[in-house]
Amino acid sequence: MKSNLSNICDYVKGKIDVSELDHRTYISTENMLPNKGGITDASSLPTTIQTQAFMAGDVLVSNIRPYFKKIWFADFDGGCSNDVLVFRAKEGVNKRFLYYVLADDTFFDYSMATSKGTKMPRGDKTSIMQYEVPNFSFKNQEKIAGMLEALDKKIQLNNKINKNLFLSQKIKTL
Questions:
Q1: pTM of the prediction?
Q2: Are 110 and 126 in contact, with CB atoms under 8 Å apart?
Q3: Which residues, including other chains, have CB under 8 Å from residue 96's CB and lie 6 or more apart?
Q4: Are 80 and 48 in contact (CB under 8 A)?
Q5: Distances (CA, A) of 22 to 51, 71, 77, 115, 148
Q6: Is the pLDDT of residue 174 over 80?
Q7: pLDDT for the residue numbered 148
């Protein structure tokens, strides 16, 4: 069975003072990495007094050019630009499961298919909440998220090993 995304999460609407943020805790589309690569530190902070807030456990998705597949599972509280959608799992929904539902390429394809604009397409917030998601029990959500998280950690470890091997090889050639 399937249900709409709106049944498992909500958009976050809270605000935070920019004065409470720094280059590490502010997220914009510019410091979100493509292809589900996470985030880097922001190069600057907004000049507004307040910006959109997020909390650890929320899922942030860049709403500009969805084909870049910029998504991040927040591991700290902070603030973000209005071009970043903040999703919060509803009661009874595993936060990591929500992340993996949104990190699926099918979600980004759907977001592009329902987006508005051609030069800089933006996901349609109403259509996004109509995206069909699998309807699993909380226990099965935990199992699925746990397996996928374990795979992600192995991939991250392999990437670190590859980077270290590359650097050590580069040093040897010097």
A1: 0.89
A2: no
A3: 73, 145, 146, 148, 149
A4: no
A5: 12, 20, 11, 31, 31
A6: no
A7: 93
Mean local confidence (pLDDT), 70-76? 97
What would the 3-class secondary structure string for the chain be? Answer: CEEEHHHCEEECCCEEEHHHCCCCCEECCCCECCCCCCECCCCCCCCCCEEEEECCCCEEEECECHHHCCEEECCCCEEECCCEEEEEECCCCCHHHHHHHHHCHHHHHHHHHCCECCCCCECCHHHHCCCEEECCCHHHHHHHHHHHHHHHHHHHHHHHHHHHHHHHHHHHHC
> What is the CB neighbour count within 10 angstroms for residue 16?
19
Q: How many Å apart are CA 171 and CA 174, to the nearest integer?
A: 5
pLDDT above 90 for 167: no
Structure tokens at 26: 């502010």
Helix axes 95-103 and 138-173, enclosed angle (nearest 10): 60
Nearest to residue 95, comparing CAs of 53, 62, 151, 142? 142
Phi, psi dihedral angles at 53 (to 5 degrees)? -95, 155
